[in-house]
């Protein structure tokens, strides 16, 4: 399906993760659709990704940015304005489940909020004039932790809860401008980071099997490509009358009847 994203400037934060991470996969799928991916991340790995895309004839740039620092976010938005002058879609994707729980320091808790939620506000605020110019849209990447809790990660849970609140607030704020605001909620996705976490556990393989058994649809994890494809559909004109929505891509893990898990 042609999603009509060719030539669209799409900003993706937190998109210089390891190959196969959600942000990096979104960027690759955007390139496949002929869009212009703008990679915003603190990791210099993003420079290599942009160079790789450019070598294939894809218009893409990398802007190295510490997303926890709103002044750097503002500077990144100025680079985008100078280069492209518009933002057709903003995908706020950065997120680190950092374990800042009740025993964390106040500094660690505040940093978690800055990275996982305040960065969403800052990037949206500073890109908004460019989004308004073309009636673009905003897509926030959320987490099931906002709905279910997880334990030991107060900063991340609070941030992702706030992200959902901001999603609906912006949908209301921007109705008059014809700008849509939605969120994707992710649960268990097989990313390089997830793989690395499993490998740190003494009973990693058993833990993985236990989790997978609890995912109702096909008893498997969601792939980053499935998440990326849902993101592309959500920012495209194929979703032109969808706003203020939380789209859960998780194989039914969060919302379906627990009786489905009975063996």
Automatic annotation (TrEMBL):
SUPFAM superfamilies: NAD(P)-binding Rossmann-fold domains. Transmembrane segments: none annotated. GO terms for molecular function: oxidoreductase activity. Gene3D superfamilies: NAD(P)-binding Rossmann-like Domain. Signal peptide: none annotated. Keywords: Oxidoreductase. It holds the Pfam family adh_short_C2. Belongs to the short-chain dehydrogenases/reductases (SDR) family. This is SDR family oxidoreductase.
